[in-house]
Amino acid sequence: xxxxxxxxxxxxxxxxxxxxxxxxxxxxxxxxxxxxxxxxxxxxxxxxxxxxxxxxxxxxxxxxxxxxxxxxxxxxxxxxxxxxxxxxxxxxxxxxxxxxxxxxxxxxxxxxxxxxxxxxxxxxxxxxxxxxxxxxxxxxxxxxxxxxxxxxxxxxxxxxxxxxxxxxxxxxxxxxxxxxxxxxxxxxxxxxxxxxxxxxxxxxxxxxxxxxxxxxxxxxxxxxxxxxxxxxxxxxxxxxxxxxxxxxxxxxxxxxxxxxxxxxxxxxxxx
Length: 271
Fold this sequence. Notes:
Layout: E1 5-12, E2 20-22, E3 33-35, E4 38-47, E5 62-66, H1 77-96, E6 100-110, H2 113-119, E7 129-130, H3 134-144, H4 149-152, E8 157-165, E9 175-178, H5 185-188, E10 189-195, E11 200-206, E12 214-216, E13 224-232, E14 244-246, E15 260-269
Parallel strand pairs: 2-10, 4-12
Antiparallel strand pairs: 1-4, 2-3, 5-13, 6-15, 7-11, 8-13, 8-15, 9-12, 9-14, 10-11
């Protein structure tokens, strides 16, 4: 049986005013906060597990890989630092062929208020977006690796997210991922100020385009990881970014476990 879903995704309504995205603080009350009008649009989301050939980072901008982690508790910061970051870097290096991979951020999320309160995690980001503009990707690189940035910027680099379940199967609030070739970067993407407690950055919100082709990986489990390209400095025709969003799955069983996930951001450098 096909796992294609019809549902609504939140798109930015165009405006003359620059939108602002306020990053939530972790906890039970964490919620999406955007100074702009977001409007639901009905879309069809196909199961990428049924797509042939399977999606890749350089064509669609995302991929699914089998990946068994040695981490026994994804809420243990020591294990994330000492074990998982090394695993995530090795995975991205293997898949992309990068000469070096640097992990620079980890974010845990849940769609259950009780879990967010207990674990101090954030909510799923339920608006169509991409994490970086060209300018904010460069700024993030300079922030994280100030001594290397000038040299690194002379060569290709990408930002790849490693996203996985840290609880049961992802059923209630999965990720929708858009085929990069169906996105018009010039008309669909809107640079948006991102305000967090400790810094101001920039991401991209997305205006409605009926040509967008949406996918999800049905029932993701702990031993799988989704790789999502959120920036690529290469302008040679490969996918440069994959817009994405969490969505409420209308087919999720009533007794489905809440979503618990971790996303790990990495720089992938190419000589």
